[in-house]
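In this section we walk through a basic example: taking a raw amino acid sequence and producing a predicted 3D structure, encoded as discrete structure tokens. The instruction is simple. Fold the sequence below.
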Amino acid sequence: MYAKQNTAVEIVLERALISSLDGTTPASSLVIGDITAAIYKGPTRTALTLTGSGQANEITEKSDGYAAIKLTAANTDTLGPMLVSLRDDDVFLAASERIMVMAANVYDSLFGSDKLQVDTREVSGTAQTANDNGADINAILADTNELQGNQSNWLTATGFSTHNAAAVWSVGTRTLTSFGSLVADIATSVWSAVSRTLTAGTKDSEINAIKAKTDRLNFDGDDVKATLDGESVTTDAASRTASKADVSGLATQASVDLIPKKPSKPEF
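The resulting token sequence is shown next.
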């Protein structure tokens, strides 16, 4: 049987009182003053004084040897197992009733409409401090509900920066506050690249013009100084033709007119 802590209750003995004379006949005509009653709360025994009708700890005979006993709030003040014992050796065999006294919330959640109280003491092994989670949840719910109700305001919201990339680039001074290791990191990364290829730059036309001129030269040996060591310099056919055309107009022979011999002095 179950009882609520600190609450008066009337219990009916689970077993009938049996006559001590034959051991089978239900006992009757009980004399309250002859009955020895006690309450055991754990190992502690406390005498229970039974009374007549309308009083505390009243005992009432029912039919077929059953009896009912009223317990006060003081009798059920201790949580846990409790035992009520009755005996009158001249009338009935010793009888008893076991009762489990439960906390009010637990009892009402089992036998009433109350909810069992559950306090979260730990989450994943971490102790939780006192907090009104319900209030936090309501606040979060209110905020998220607002997001669903004002989408039309998102496009017209004010107070945000209107700068775009062009506006940022047009600022007169653009200075990084700190490079840190940025420059060294970039240099290391570029130099460690397997392939390092220069892309087209602003001097392409000048470089191409120089290349067009030097492509006409074809040296034997290791370098330009080879000609000073007695080696020959060769050119391509186009270069030779062009050079010949440049000197073709030059005369290869020269003529000298003879000056007449001075006449000798005449003689007279």
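Looking at the output, two observations stand out. The CA atoms of residues 242 and 248 lie 10 Å apart. The first helix runs from residue 104 to 111. In the next section we compare this with other chains.
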